[in-house]
## 1
Amino acid sequence: MFSAWEIVPLVLLTLDAWDFVKLTRSRCEVCGQAVSIPHKWTFYFLIAVGFWNFVGAGVFGFLINLPIVSYYEVGTMLTPNHGHAALMGSFGMLALALTVFALRQVSSYDHWKRMEKLIRVSFWSLNIGLALMVVTNLFPGGVL
């Protein structure tokens, strides 16, 4: 039961991080200038943590714990499907969020502007690559 409910607080944290990202797109109510939040990509990685934890631990973790699935799936690709999505999605993205936070703190503004493009490409590449691995390789292999 605890394992099934573990995703609830992480989904709530993801929604909170999304509200913070929406704040970065707003304007100051007093002066009308754009709000400058230097850690936008850190929060994107934190949103990815919540998303992949929901998909990997929540959906695929719950799937492999169903009795009928557990009877047939021992030794199949459904377990690595759950493991890769949950581990890389949760802890891998969390480590990358911390890395991006630290890089932003020690970088000058000009240096960060050059690095930010690479961080954006790595964020989307990691998430799209993980989704493709799970959807096109591990899940179909586990079902077969």
## 2
Amino acid sequence: MAVKLVTDSTSYIDQATQKELDIQIAHLSVHFPDESFDETTVSYDYFYKKIEQEGIIPTSSQPTPGDIYNTFEKIVSRGDEVLGIFISSKMSGTYDSALSAKKLIMENFPQASIEILDSKTNSMAMGLQVIEAAQAAQNGKNLAEVIRIAEHIRSKVHFYFVPASLKYLIKGGRIGGAAAIIGSFLHIRPILYVNDGMTDVYDRVRGTARAVKRMLSILEEDAKKYGIKHLLVHHIHDEKQGQELVDKLSRQYNRAVSSLPLGPVIGLHVGPGTVAIVYITE
């Protein structure tokens, strides 16, 4: 009996790592008025150009309990245990879908062992929880031990991001009224972060460059106080800016830093040009 990890597509774990660690993915999707896509199969370039050209913010949808049930069933029918780690329950109904799927599995497979964990975040802030847990499972840790490792990573992970503009936050209703108008006029850029499962504003400065600099100063403060275990960069349809940030951080911290694009479900809320950092403190 082995422990197998299941997560959702907003973790953005690369396919090579999924295969190496036998991580199963439940897919979220995005919907325009004229077409819909599984976010794991649509071209990111096509998707982001479409929202920029058409000026339409699509909606997103979670996997159904049936979708997740099918994934769970394949695992438990082999006699293996499941740890599912999903996008914050305050951001998506995916976690609730997983709980519903678990209930159905337990009715049909009473001896099954399934645990569901709320990552309280998304993107690789969630993905690192999944990866560390999957590595522990492959090293022979039992389900309780694997859960403790995932929860430990969850308590140490940090996720900050800077949008290139307020347009998508405004359209999505995350910034409204006079604050949005004044912020746009003065080129105010928020430094956003994930705080107990929700997107929140950490700080505000004028100009994108200053906002990125402020974001990196937060990282530097934590690095000095606590040490950094993992560090990576996310970008939304801006590979050049993502690579520039990677180069800077690689030199500063003398370590390999990867740059990973964010897909449609997360990207549609903050828009192209956004850059982010994810790190785990020691």
## 3
Amino acid sequence: MTSYPLDVLTARAAALADLGPRRLLGIVGPPGAGKSTLAARIVDAVGPTAALVPMDGYHLAEAELHRLGRHDRKGAIDTFDAAGYVSMLGRLAAAGPETVYAPAFHREIEEPVAGSIPVPPEVRLVVTEGNYLLVPDEPWSGVRLLLDEVWYVDLDEEERLRRLVARHMAYGRSQVEAKARSYGSDQVNAELIATTRLRADLVVRLVDG
């Protein structure tokens, strides 16, 4: 694993976009590793020709998770609409003349909201981030086929868990609840994600500056 300053990663993403007409960059990693932060910074640095379409928009709705009996495992691989996500990536990769609208996940209501993220035809780089971009099993295997590059974001395990607990607490969970989630279902997910690390094009740790 190599630590990269943001400008180096931004330059790599911009070079990918220059290959055109539209390129898709995936950023993957376990919960709390920093993939959402990195993805947002890349898009901000590249500018208006880049767009961020997170995998989290494909969370199943709360009502559906309760119906399926999976609500206590929200975030696990079977709590997402994987086929819908692959379909959306396919539309984005096709780079047609129309604006594509992607869903976004709103943590304040714990629900995905359709039509939240516009990706107009002039966007040359779509950055998507999420946990399961490199899982080889169907239908997730279709994700890797549509992405031009995938970066795996790694982090010291103790620091990752500290950040994850803090994030859960920031969204209203008690410290006990946050630790139970981070060291429980989130850790099961993290262990699955770690098995996909070798499928990435680049393994990185972001450093300031």
## 4
Amino acid sequence: MFTGLISDVGEIVGLTATNDTKRVRIACSYPHEGIALGASIACSGPCLTVVGVEVQQGRTVFDVEAARETLERTTLGSWHVGQRLNLERSLKVGDELGGHLISGHVDGVATVVARTDYGTTARFDIDAPAPLARFIAEKGSVCLDGTSLTVNSVDGTRFSVLLIPHSLAVTTWNTSRTGSRMNIEVDQMARYAARLAEPFRHPAA
């Protein structure tokens, strides 16, 4: 589990693709001794398993692998060397829950349709995949590229979020522009509430 509070911004330093998997090498500022093989790290949204870790030129570098399901459902298939990623270590018992509970199981890919800067803050208008739009509510929570955000407004499949200066400074959001694609994970409570309500929306004949 994660909270959507980004603790580091990593950089992709290597990619290796096979027929159905992709191995990604990510440099970060986490202490290498604190990353165990098999650990879970959210990388711009997807929860990925560490399969290798070492120190290169004074930086911690860890390897993760993604299978076909992740490649098809997220932006990971288009990642490239030099790309920066929002990173978060998995939540530990006793940690402060500053964002909202996030599983790292990405639901789909959303697109930035507009960015409006207001001095040091920025508003982003996002278009969500149609099947996910019903899980997004005004003043509710949404996870975009691993970041826990509050939904400001909703209009059909489009919604808006506002990034404060701190969030822009410590995440990859400051480089996001119109057309940017983002991994989206809807709020878990909304997902389960919709599932529980299905029998009442479609009663048996």
